[in-house]
Specification:
Length: about 80
Amino acid sequence: MLENLSDITEDDIRGLFVDCKIDAIRFSLNKRTGEFQGFGHVDFSDDESLERALKLNQELVLGRAVKMAYAVTKNRSEQETKK
């Protein structure tokens, strides 16, 4: 998960992670207003890309230090079991 973002684009994110293989970038939007909430998620293609990305924690993007946290996605069967 990426935090402390504002006015950032997918190209800015790809520029930060230029040495990483990215599967997807998702920005969090307010469900009611559709406005960007200042954080998002990046899915990496492999563990090496993830490790390189985590080393960029607190790097400046558009003049702001980007905060990164490792997030684990639950698989669908685990989610359905907990319902």
